[in-house]
Amino acid sequence: GLKSLPVTSVADLLAAKASPLGTAAAASAPAASASQPAQASRDTWLYRHGVEVTLRGNYADLLAYLNTLEHLPRRVYWGELKINAQDSPSVVMTLTVYTISLEKTWWVI
Fold it and tell me: What is the domain range of residue 74?
């Protein structure tokens, strides 16, 4: 399966990591007034686009898939990874895959 994730600005991600309360504090930060543009909007020039992919196979095949992702000519990053091996030798892997772009819009999937 494939699930699109919301577009996130890299500036927002960095601000959330710098906040001692994490993303909850960054999400509840006060909005800038109309006369003062928000700092994040001036700094937002990189965007992270992600999809969640679910694959089924044996462990070696899924590991080979990750290796292929890491060696693609176009840079792709992977984040959260969950593995369910209850039906071994068949393994279900759910993986979040990201690209970084200068554009807010992304490929249509």
Answer: 2-25+39-101
Q: Tell me the CA distances in angstroms from 63 to 1, 55, 69, 71, 101, one per residue in order.
A: 18, 11, 10, 13, 26
If one compares 105 and 93, the residue with the highest pLDDT of the two is 93
CA 70 to each of CA 7, 13, 15, 39, 60: distance values in angstroms, whole numbers, following the listed order: 21, 22, 27, 33, 15
pLDDT higher for 97 or 7? Answer: 97
> Hey, what amino acid is at 70?
E
| CATH code for the domain in which residue 64 is found | 3.30.70.60
pTM: 0.57
| Structure confidence at residue 98 (pLDDT) | 87
